[in-house]
């Protein structure tokens, strides 16, 4: 993992914390969670305040995620909103944090000038014991605290101001006026500095959870769909009239579900040629095949002439694996911008030729699900499914690791937004 970290493929774009006053505020939050303060003089944090250095020091990767439910957060700066979430049990943690930042920007900006904002993303579940527990999370409430109780004192001051406005004799109450002055010395003018987060409840939309080996939950107006391990506790048991269950190994049913709910962009020559989709699938496939076959080889997997020569030398391997001949067939079908007849293709092949529908709000999650079905495409897995990418990386040989890291660093990391839009027509952050 050292190469990944040095190349910023893991723990990349995090915020460095080394100012003593920020470290002190971070420790206030840790103590608020009942944790030991850090002794680190410098450490990195993500959007939620998670730090790999602090996690190592505490010997607890889940120090902000106890039981992998009710995620904790520590906000030292509004700039954290632009950071990634590098460690989470729920795929929508980043989305929820973005919403919290956006809806409470004034309060966060004002509070973090003097204080730390911390708390937890609270839901009805204390521990996920079965799928029913995950399904019960329909919305979350951000419980918010500050190190010096700035938010609480601002709330108290606002109540006193209301009394002053509404009670005729309040101006004669010296004790009330003195209390207001003392509070204002701490909070500042709350008429211009909003110190109380007002939007704290958000819907828990479609998500992936790491529980029970990985579970996808998609929410539609008339039905919720669970995709996971049929051996998971609660699978096919709870609310059968409202919830459909799909075995994560059942590619046929998963694909049909995505098509019928409008979440999938079907294979058509127009977008496939424009995006270079087959080039992506071909290059990532050849990279994996070549480095597995010849771990120490010098492989130029982006060079079509080299690919042709390599395939000729390894025709038996290529035919046995089967994916490359299929991709070559697909390329021939697309030459005349013809729509591919899906009935001619097995379910895995359909996933290879498909991407999430760009206009759908579940686009990122669907591309993550597709990456589970097309495991050789390490670029898609890195973009949408980093835990799976890191697990793959651990199993690779040194040559494949070096090649993939170099390629991702020199292509994707140089222009993330541009590459995501080109390949997946994704316009989000």
Structural description of this entry:
The protein has two domains: 2-148 and 195-204, no CATH class; 250-424, no CATH class. 47% of the residues lie in helices and 12% in strands. It is elongated and about 95 Å long. A hairpin with a 2-residue loop joins strand 8 (215-220) and strand 9. It is built from 20 helices and twelve strands. Helix 7 (150-166) packs antiparallel against helix 8, helix 11 packs antiparallel against helix 14 and helix 11 (277-293) packs antiparallel against helix 19 (398-410). The protein has a four-stranded antiparallel β-sheet. A four-stranded mixed β-sheet has the order 7-8-9-10. With 429 residues, the chain is of the alpha+beta class. It starts with a helix and ends in a 5-residue tail after the last helix.
Please give the alpha-carbon distance between the first and last residues. 26 Å
**How many domains would you count in the coordinates?**
2
Strand order of the largest sheet: 3-4-5-6
Radius of gyration from the CA trace? 26 Å
CA-based shape: elongated
SS field, number of helical segments: 20
Given the helix and strand composition, which structural class is it? Answer: alpha+beta
Low-confidence stretches: none
The largest β sheet comes out as: 4 strands, antiparallel
The tally of beta strands, per DSSP, is 12
